[in-house]
Amino acid sequence: MDNRTVAIICHGGAGTITEKEDYARGLSEAIEEGYRLLRQGAPALEAVLRAVVMLEDNPVFNAGTGSSLTIDEVAEMDAGIMTQHGRFGGVICIRNVKNPVLVAEKVMTETDHLILAGDGAIRFARSMGFEDYNPVTEKAKRRLMELRQNGSKFFPRLNQRLGITEQKSGTVGAVAIDRNGNIVAATSSGGIAGRMTGRVGDSGIPGAGVFASPAGGVSCTGHGEEILRMLLARDIGERMKTLPAQTAVTLALSEAKRKKVLCGAIAIDARGGIGYGYTSPDMAYGYKAADRLFLFTDSRK
Ligand code: ASP
């Protein structure tokens, strides 16, 4: 077996992060667990799923339990997973499940489709044995109430009172490379608080919020409408055909910055090189490679 270096990188969303220590703790637990699996010889798919499930189950993050709510107080979640071989599974606007990323994986392995949305996604989840689960937390309800009072800077038509400069983050993502050189990327999000019900974000769309190819894997976070317009994950993936992950991310994000798009991305290239960057005030991220853990709280921008 080719025993090349394994690596995993995770993010906990781009935006303004107030609970930095909680984010860092949640990320380090997920990264350590994913890395432990990779070192034991587990496939990248297993490591990524495990890490994202841990982040979804942690109410600090905006994915799974603790997901942001729509303007009608509903938790509609998006998730996507992609392998370097181009296999993809996604769920869009799925409700009442604990781990959207696990349903996305079942879409990939058990259906002839790439993405299931809404009621159909929920029905499929039930048929796969995923139980009814309410991911709505009191904190997410309070956050929506605050937004109702102050407005969301991303959705001016929903609320004409602009001027909010703070956008909470918390979407999660992971990219890993295993010792056979297989690369998998996944993203899971509760979406942006205060959006219209039925709104589709980038997280469950291949090429937008998540992407993988033989050149590398990518997970994005930030303003979903703009990430969709830019097909940000695909852009970074294309760049990794000729550039290391860090250069690919930096170049794509400088383009995003020029367009004033608030976003962030993590990536791993085919050589196991790590890349990350963001145009937002903060991004929660961390990685482990060569047995060394690095967290965003270790060095401030
Ligand atoms: N990209 C997500 C969305 O627009 C939100 C986020 O990453 O914070 O749904």
Automatic annotation (TrEMBL):
Binding-site list for substrate: 199-202, 221-224
Gene Ontology terms for molecular function: hydrolase activity, acting on carbon-nitrogen (but not peptide) bonds, in linear amides; peptidase activity
Keyword Protease: yes
InterPro entries to which the protein is assigned, alphabetical: Ntn_hydrolases_N (IPR029055), Peptidase_T2 (IPR000246)
Domain of life assignment: Bacteria
UniProt entry keywords in alphabetical sequence: Autocatalytic cleavage, Hydrolase, Protease
Any GO BP annotation: proteolysis
A Pfam family that the UniProt record links to this protein: Asparaginase_2
GO CC aspect terms: cytoplasm
Annotated active site: 171
Record site feature (Cleavage), residues: 170-171
Name this polypeptide is given: Asparaginase
Organism, as annotated: candidate division WOR-3 bacterium
Phylogenetic classification of the source organism: Bacteria, Bacteria division WOR-3
